[in-house]
């Protein structure tokens, strides 16, 4: 007798609710975004947890966070939702005849944590277009755009040195938060001050001029952490925070609630004096964009609005 495998009993709507909860961190905000009641969202999450036989969320006073299982399931849920979106639009809309290529520069952080997934989705919609990502540092990016070696770049705009020479489109403002380990003395706080953060060893990321950005808000506050631990590896930052070597302040764009070893990392709100990481699209004022570049720029702008 063959084994009977029962189908998983969840819907796309439940996946949408789960995705909204994961993004907002609160049942109430997710319900507002989805135009349903909180009880509807709560019931949908409970049904998912029963279907998967695993807890997806941890409830706290300030909201909810994903469990390790929830983090893994979110990636699969987002893949399913993206596929459903493509299935709904592609059979009824003729494929665009846009052809060609566009070179787009970006730094390490922006390329890996923001741009690459958007390039993949754009190329699915425009299969005759090749978007070529070019990883450069900030200085090289500015030079490449001005020399027309790349038609555009997606950058951390606060890092730009020759800002007046570029057309600029704001894409994302990613709030910076404090990262701490499970069991850290600040873990249960809903918001902390820089004075509180300064009492603990501070892990400083050097990529994408992270050291320069950190110094700005520390100097503005007139204080310094007790100890600096410097690294150029984002994964090293995660592991050191998770193992309680120290704390760090980084943007939500690069935040993940778990280290590679499956240890928990908590994010805590900071005062408004710590600015968000601003990501934008820049092009040269001296060079016109190709039709492919214009379409990709419009796509990035539209996608960023949907994400926010």
TrEMBL record:
One of its GO terms (cellular component) is cytosol. Residues 10-67 form the HTH lysR-type domain. Gene3D superfamilies: Periplasmic binding protein-like II, Winged helix-like DNA-binding domain superfamily/Winged helix DNA-binding domain. Pfam families: HTH_1, LysR_substrate. GO terms for molecular function: DNA binding; DNA-binding transcription factor activity. InterPro entries: HTH-type_LysR_regulators, LysR_HTH_N, LysR_subst-bd, WH-like_DNA-bd_sf, WH_DNA-bd_sf. The keyword Transcription applies. Keywords: DNA-binding, Transcription, Transcription regulation. Belongs to the LysR transcriptional regulatory family. This is LysR family transcriptional regulator. It comes from Lampropedia aestuarii.
């Amino acid at each position: 007798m063959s084994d009977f495998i029962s189908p998983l009993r969840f819907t796309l709507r439940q996946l949408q609710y789960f995705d909204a909860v994961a993004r907002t961190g609160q049942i109430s905000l997710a319900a507002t975004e989805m135009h349903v009641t909180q009880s509807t969202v709560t019931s949908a999450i409970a049904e998912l947890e029963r279907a998967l036989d695993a807890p997806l969320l941890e409830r706290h006073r300030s909201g909810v966070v994903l469990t390790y299982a929830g983090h893994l399931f979110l990636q699969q849920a987002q893949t399913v939702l993206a596929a459903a979106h493509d299935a709904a639009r592609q059979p009824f809309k003729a494929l665009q005849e846009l052809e060609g290529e566009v070179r787009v520069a970006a730094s390490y952080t922006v390329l890996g944590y923001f741009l690459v997934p958007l390039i993949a989705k754009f190329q699915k919609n425009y299969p005759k277009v090749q978007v070529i990502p070019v990883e450069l540092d900030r200085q090289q990016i500015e030079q490449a755009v001005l020399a027309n070696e790349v038609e555009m770049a997606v950058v951390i705009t606060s890092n730009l040195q020759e800002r007046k020479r570029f057309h600029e489109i704001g894409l994302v403002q990613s709030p910076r938060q404090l990262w701490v380990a499970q069991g850290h003395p600040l873990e249960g706080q809903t918001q902390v001050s820089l004075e509180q953060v300064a009492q603990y060893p501070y892990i400083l990321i050097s990529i994408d001029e992270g050291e320069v950005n950190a110094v700005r808000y520390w100097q503005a506050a007139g204080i310094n952490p007790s100890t600096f631990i410097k690294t150029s590896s984002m994964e090293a930052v995660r592991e050191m925070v998770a193992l309680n070597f120290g704390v760090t302040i980084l943007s939500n764009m690069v935040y993940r609630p778990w280290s590679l070893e499956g240890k928990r990392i908590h994010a805590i709100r900071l005062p408004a004096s710590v600015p968000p990481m601003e990501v934008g699209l820049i092009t040269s004022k001296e060079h016109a964009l190709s039709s492919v570049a214009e379409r990709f720029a419009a796509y990035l702008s539209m996608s960023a609005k949907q994400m926010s």
